[in-house]
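writing this on my phone so excuse typos. first protein, seq and then structure
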Amino acid sequence: AWVDHELKNAGATQIEVINPPSLYTPRHHQLIASLLVSNYQPTQCDLGCSIMVSQTPLIKKMNKGKQKQFRHGVKAGFVFKKLSLLKLSEVYSFIETCRKERKQSLSLSLKELEKIIKMLPKAFHLFVVSLDKKIITASICVRVNTSTIYTFYSAHSQAHDSISPLVFLLAHLYDWCRENGITLLDMGTSTLRGKPNFNLLDFKLRVGGTLSPKFTFQKKL
């Protein structure tokens, strides 16, 4: 109420609150309740999905189809690596090419991303999976806090759609999280032009994710 009052006095006519995904905090329900009783109205719900990291290997959380894809990667000789930020240009270029294959684009240019990483170098991490020394899937991740990492940009080449190497990457990224004290692997929202992308959401659930909605609230002053 105090914040609302001060913002109104400062000339604001509307407040928008974008909540983090629900799994980020055990007090999510209390936060939602406090906004609702303060007359904030929900205006958007993005369907996010996160993997809760535990001592149980991720493959045991996957459905049978994703387990099969992971085992295929093992047999095929997939190699998981964490790369230095010096390889950002190479990883970004790979992801951008994969997105263009699907007629999609990235929200940030390489220069814009480099500027952000220069300010927060410890927050960003690069992960790839290679086959015969050639990258076939990659992820640029952001460590949001001590317990959460977010897969900011991820992609794999269309040529490998049938074997989905991202499953192999996520399984090893999950292990990396466990080794580094991270308890939540946020795979991001599953929306496309503001609408649910159910194919993407289905993939995330089948690979071991848990639904983690992200609400936006507004209030007119």
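second protein below, same order as before
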Amino acid sequence: MSLPDLLQHPSADPVSLYLTSLPSPASRRSMTASLQALSGLARDLSGQTGRVDWTALDPATATALRAACRSRWAPATTNRHMACLRGVVKAAWLAGAMDRDVAEACRAGLANVPAAHRGPDPSARLVTDTELARIFDLLATEPGPRARRD
């Protein structure tokens, strides 16, 4: 079933809608794993069992999930999980299963976390004259147009 067909279906499941919208099987596998991890986390936080109803997500719970993710996983993993859940929330809103204002507030609560830097930020360091001279000397020994360009 195509995405437009799924949206017209009265019992459109936002998780299926979201996963169907992903462009590759690898993306679907990755986001399915994220949803499984998030479902387990949501069940742990709520003390409930069974399937998680993402259409009932509220902004406070979304923010709590983000905080719990930050305490458990690295920023890149947390951001993948947050992107996945933002996609499910958007699909729920598109399917009419979630109010627009609630969906927007939830998506705001699921914002990406900053990347963790270990040590000083390398982009803030200036290249010394000696390092620059060594780079140009090395490139001068390389044959061909690519070395000149580089």
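The radius of gyration is 22 Å. thats all i got for now
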